[in-house]
Design a protein that fits this description.
The protein is of the alpha+beta class and 81 residues long. The protein has one domain. The chain has three helices and four strands. The longest helix has 15 residues. It is globular, with a radius of gyration of 12 Å. The mean pLDDT is 77.
């Protein structure tokens, strides 16, 4: 996904869901997820680290618990270099 399209996806998800979640997936180091836009509602952003211990579904469950739901629609994957 190109940079411009990715930025538009972030903006669209923030408008629809109130935030965006980015999943960063790496070949060697553990993956992680972070939010963009939660600070407008909750005054903080979240980083879910520990990709070796939590799979994507578990990260979504954690984020759903904090945000009140909707994580699957507000998410995108990014491959770490």
């Amino acid at each position: 996904m190109g940079k411009e399209k990715y930025i538009e996806e972030i903006k669209s998800n923030i408008q629809k869901f109130g935030y965006h979640v980015t999943y960063v997936i790496a070949d060697i180091s553990p993956s992680f997820a972070y939010t963009i836009g939660l600070s407008q509602t909750f005054n903080f952003e979240l980083v879910i680290a520990g990709g070796a211990f939590y799979n994507r579904a578990e990260k979504e469950t954690i984020l759903d618990g904090v945000t009140g739901g909707g994580v699957k629609g507000a998410a995108a994957k990014v491959k770490a270099d």
